[in-house]
Write a structure and sequence with these properties.
881 residues; alpha/beta; Rossmann fold; six-stranded mixed β-sheet; 24 helices; 41% helix
């Protein structure tokens, strides 16, 4: 059937063949219809608690309807010795109750335990046996040897539980299951006699999502059985994962065990095991129902063997649901369990039960009466044979009965109670406490002073339902046991980290819990430092993503045709940042902050204004003060030589006014330096405009005076009446008052004010004076320009007049400088920002003022100081002649 030529060597082929068709336990019992199996464990008592356990799994040949059914041999028996603890926990709990004088002291509990064999026919058959009075299946028949069945515990998975419930529900017998997944959607209404001694599977789904989000795993695979439960698991979990941004990289369904063994070739199995070779998938979520784990273990073993690799090379993080308890089939006991090293699983919360370990130490296979499981378990677990055993062994070792259970590896048997055994233990106690509560309530209405033996003959199992639904008690381990409104255990799940060692032993470490009963911020807790990862990850937390994270400074960009978890990382655009991993969008910094060079952090902006303490401010201040001092010296020189011809020429008072205006113009530049305030903003442009308009008006008045003076010298000229101080004063006053009116209107309508510009410069906040009304600002400058142009035009016309009597030539040059400076000011002013804009305006004021001062007064100061001989009336007359 199988092609062994593709294997690496013959030894591997023989090894696989021996395991593939091995018979862990062959019953070889000739059966009549229906099937009869002898595996049971019973003990009589006043009340009987039935149990359908799951220790073995038979693989039956499928029977069709094309021929009459014949006697069949039950062949392959897959056994898990670890499940024998389920039987022992039930027996121990009943023993503990019978020894407790506080719980129904005048009644005893018995038990009757059958196996389900993970088979529908056998589960129905053995459930009917529990309902029958004798070994023969005769339900509804009462006799003297009635078992007085009070409740039934089982089964391990949802299907077995449903098979039992279809029969037990007819008789309203309480069924306490320990299956993680409910057999039907609406258990409370569809199965009113059904209870589960495990938490709701909804908490497990939520826990899986929270665990993935905690580790930031967004690229995961899902393994389930190819059946209704597997479909239900995927249907429920997948929307929750997608809703929280987790992508499903793989959704693989494992075939049933019978199909895997009988029908699939090695090539088919290896093809299905692509998730083991896919290095990109680091995390696999396994719905750990019994058949799924069995097939998964088989697949891993075959994959490792056929590929000639070690189990440790299959570096995965197995995230397994609470059905798993790290047990192996007897035929796979040789598998290297380190493939499951670092596994994270959910587990039914359990605690150390006092006396259970001691109970296991005193267990003897030859001393137990009525137990058909123990000898088979003993032979399988210790690989030995009792005398007269039907099991065919390759070894000749004989069982002595003195073997120690604590010497077995954890995959075959554990000395501490597992989560499933703990659920069975609590189920037995819940039944006992319910009966005790029921009889305690009756004692309030009856006189039971003589404490006579309880009358159990008339007790009906359905009568304990009200008490079972409301049961609340503390077990011997100190845990509170109660059921919620859905008949499920009101508790959460533990998160277990499984650490496997080379000697086939393992340790289970509780690293967290999912407790819906806790407060909101403590319903999910996990200790990262306590987790041991698979050695292929070098004890570093695995990275389960489609691609690397986008670090701060980058944002995610979706890849076309790929799941949303797959993306490219793009650098944030200029001016934006991202300060977390895997951000979808970059964002602007808050007002007053700017991005750093890596675009992953916002830094506070510095204030940008022209300060007196910075180099540029110091230089400009020095120039302003120097120019002011020079202007003051010139004024002093002219006052000192006020009676000289060169000072008296062309209206001495205008000269003084002009020099004072220039001095104030230099000094008003200081208003532009320093942090802008409301007063300084209002005075900056207005003071400059009025003072400078007065200076330009003086220049215009000088020019007009010179022109009129020469025109008045002509015979018969009518201009003589215009020549005089009154005309000059009128020109200065009228031209200045217009500028003053413009400034007053500006201040009254839309005055300048301090403003913070947070957008113009990336790393700085410009502290500036907003002009308030840009129109009024340009009106002030425009009027100054108009005066300057008029002065320039008049001076240009008078430039050829004799130099000894007028300064028109110098005024022409000064106006030329003035106009050049302010024409270049406008584009420079508009193209700069912040303190440099202020510096441009200050420089323009200084340059234009210095131009007037230098062009008009420098030649005169030269004559007054260095050529005083030229500053005499005779020299002026001689030059004029």
């Amino acid at each position: 059937m199988y092609n062994y030529e593709e294997m690496h060597d013959l030894d591997h082929a023989r090894q696989i063949e021996s395991i593939w068709v091995c018979k862990a336990y062959t019953a070889k019992c000739s059966l009549s219809e229906p099937f009869q199996l002898s595996h049971q464990y019973y003990q009589t008592g006043d009340f009987t608690i039935g149990t359908i356990a799951t220790q073995y799994a038979f693989i039956f040949e499928e029977i069709g309807f094309k021929k009459i059914p014949t006697i069949k041999d039950i062949d392959r028996l897959i056994a898990r010795p670890k499940y024998y603890q389920h039987v022992l926990s039930s027996v121990f709990a009943i023993k503990e109750i019978n020894e407790n004088s506080q719980i129904l002291p005048n009644a005893t509990f018995g038990f009757h335990i059958y196996d389900s064999y993970i088979n529908a026919r056998m589960t129905h058959q053995n459930t009917l046996k529990l309902l029958s009075s004798q070994e023969k299946i005769i339900p509804n028949f009462k006799c003297d040897k009635q078992k007085n069945l009070i409740a039934v515990i089982g089964g391990l998975d949802s299907e077995i539980s449903l098979y039992m419930a279809t029969l037990l529900g007819i008789y309203k017998i309480p069924q306490l299951a320990y299956c993680i997944i409910a057999p039907v959607m609406d258990v409370k209404n569809q199965l009113p006699s059904f209870y589960r001694m495990v938490p709701s599977e909804e908490y497990q789904y939520t826990g899986i999502v929270q665990l993935l989000l905690h580790f930031q795993w967004t690229w995961v695979g899902i393994l389930t059985m190819d059946d209704d439960n597997g479909d239900q698991f995927v249907t429920t979990l997948m929307p929750m994962l997608l809703q929280h941004g987790i992508c499903i990289a793989l959704n693989e369904k494992t075939p049933p065990v019978s199909q895997a063994i009988e029908k699939l070739s090695f090539d088919s199995i290896l093809k299905r095991a692509c998730y083991l070779s896919n290095s990109k998938i680091k995390v696999l979520i396994v719905n750990a129902e019994n058949p799924t784990i069995t097939c998964l273990t088989w697949t891993i073993y075959l994959y490792v063997t056929l590929k000639s690799i070690t189990e440790t090379s299959v570096g995965k993080v197995w995230l397994i649901t609470a059905q798993w308890d790290f047990s192996l089939d007897i035929m796979l006991r040789a598998i290297d369990i380190q493939v499951f090293d670092g596994t994270l699983s959910f587990a039914i919360h359990s605690n150390a039960v006092p006396g259970f370990r001691k109970f296991l130490y005193h267990l003897q296979p030859n001393a137990e009466k009525g137990d058909d499981f123990i000898r088979i378990f003993w032979e399988q677990a210790f690989s030995c044979s009792f005398s007269g055993s039907k099991e065919v062994k390759q070894t000749s070792d004989s069982c002595t009965g003195e073997e120690k259970l604590d010497s077995l590896p954890g995959t075959l048997f554990e000395m501490s109670m597992t989560g499933q055994s703990y659920s069975i233990y609590n189920a037995v106690h819940a039944i006992a406490h319910s009966l005790h509560k029921m009889y305690s309530s009756r004692s309030k209405h009856r006189a039971m002073q003589d404490r006579a033996r309880l009358d159990v003959s008339n007790l009906q199992s359905w009568q304990i339902h009200p008490f079972l639904r409301s049961i609340i008690f503390n077990n011997s381990a100190g845990d509170k046991v109660s059921l919620n409104e859905k008949g499920e255990l009101a508790a959460g799940f533990d998160i277990i980290n499984w650490v496997a060692f080379p000697n086939q032993s393992f340790a289970s470490v509780k690293v967290g819990m999912m407790d819906p009963e806790a407060v909101t911020d403590q319903d999910f807790t996990i200790n990262d430092k306590a987790i041991t990862w698979h050695n292929t990850f070098n004890q570093a937390q695995p990275l389960a993503v489609c691609n690397d994270y986008c670090y701060p400074g980058y944002s995610r960009k979706k890849k076309e045709g790929q799941p949303f978890c797959c993306y490219d990382c793009t650098l944030c655009p200029y001016g934006k940042i991202s300060n977390q991993m895997d951000m979808d969008y970059c964002f602007q910094c808050p007002k007053g902050q700017f991005p750093n060079s890596n675009r992953d952090q916002c830094l506070p902006k510095v204030l940008n204004f022209l300060s007196f303490t910075e180099p540029l401010g110091i230089i400009l201040t020095f120039l302003i003060l120097s120019s002011s001092v020079i202007t003051a010296l010139v004024l002093e020189i002219f006052i000192k030589h006020k009676d000289t011809p060169i000072v008296k020429a062309n209206n001495r008072n205008l000269t003084y006014t002009l020099l004072i205006s220039l001095l104030l113009s230099f000094l008003c530049s200081l208003l532009f330096i320093g942090c802008p305030q409301t007063v300084t903003c209002c005075l900056r442009q207005t003071a400059f405009g009025i003072i400078f308009s007065m200076a330009v008006s003086c220049v215009l008045a000088k020019t007009v005076t010179v022109v009129l003076a020469f025109m008045a010298t002509k015979p018969g000229s009518r201009m003589r009446k215009w020549v005089g101080k009154s005309l000059a004063n009128s020109v200065v006053f009228s031209c200045s008052i217009i500028e003053a009116i413009i400034c007053v209107v500006w201040l009254c309508t839309a005055p300048p004010f301090p403003h913070l510009d947070t957008h113009s410069l990336m790393e700085e906040i410009i502290v500036e004076c907003s002009e308030g009304s840009v129109t009024m600002f340009y009106c002030v400058l425009g009027y100054l320009g108009f005066l300057a142009i008029v002065s320039f035009a008049v001076a240009f016309q008078a430039r050829k007049l004799p130099d000894s009597f007028n300064e028109a030539k110098f005024i022409t040059f000064s106006m030329l400088v003035f106009c050049s400076v302010w024409l270049s000011f406008v584009p420079s002013y508009l193209s700069t920002k912040g303190k440099y804009m202020v510096a441009v305006e200050i420089f323009s004021i200084l340059a234009s003022s210095a131009g007037l001062l230098g062009c008009i007064f420098a030649p005169k100061c030269y004559i007054i100081i260095l050529r005083p001989s030229l500053n005499s009336r005779e020299q002026l007359i001689r030059r004029n002649t």
